[in-house]
Specification:
Blueprint (H helix, E strand, L loop, with lengths): L2 H18 L3 E4 L4 H4 L7 E11 L4 E3 L2 E16 L8 H12 L11 E10 L5 E14 L3 H19 L3
Parallel strand pairs: 1-2
Antiparallel strand pairs: 2-4, 3-4, 4-6, 5-6
Helix pairs in contact: 1-3
């Protein structure tokens, strides 16, 4: 399971509504500076949070299969909790978009938790929603390892060359 692809698929699902709602969104930034940029409107971050694996359900000559529960974190930031540009209405919109959504290879997403994270020093309200979805992790063949190693090599070259 590629968590970057999963994040991108969820972002593609929420994109049309958040764009028309004048809400900033994207994957959780790679650095803290981007996370703390000034808010001019509500902002939503999507991030893989964790995977919980059950004991293998099959172990055979063909390979191993395990059920997995994947948790996705959605962070909602706004200068307001209530009203048209507040966290509560954005949280409700995200629920309407993601409850029951089926990412590739996974079951329908369910909401597990909503919580206030904090009111930070920059005056942002920060809330979090945790969604889960179930799937099966299947042992890959050796060819998949080579493909991933090639992707890492390409990404390392891009980083080294400042791309």
């Amino acid at each position: 399971m590629n968590y970057e692809d999963l994040e991108d698929e969820i972002i593609a699902k929420i994109n049309p509504s958040l764009t028309s709602g004048n809400i900033d969104f994207g994957p959780l930034p790679e650095n803290e500076e981007d996370l703390k940029k000034a808010l001019t409107r509500p902002r939503v971050w999507v991030s893989f949070n964790m995977s919980d694996y059950n004991p293998p359900k099959s172990m055979s000559a063909e390979g191993l299969a395990q059920d997995v529960v994947v948790t996705i974190e959605v962070i909602i930031q706004s200068k307001k909790r209530r009203g048209a540009q507040g966290c509560y209405i954005v949280m409700n919109l995200i629920k309407l978009l993601l409850l029951g959504f089926r990412p590739s290879g996974l079951t329908a997403m369910t909401l597990q938790k909503e919580e206030l994270l904090n009111f930070d020093q920059q005056g942002f309200w920060n809330y979090r929603q945790l969604y889960t979805s179930k799937g099966t992790q299947i042992q890959e063949d050796d060819g998949t390892v080579d493909v991933i190693l090639q992707q890492i090599a390409v990404n390392t070259t891009e980083i080294t060359n400042g791309v």
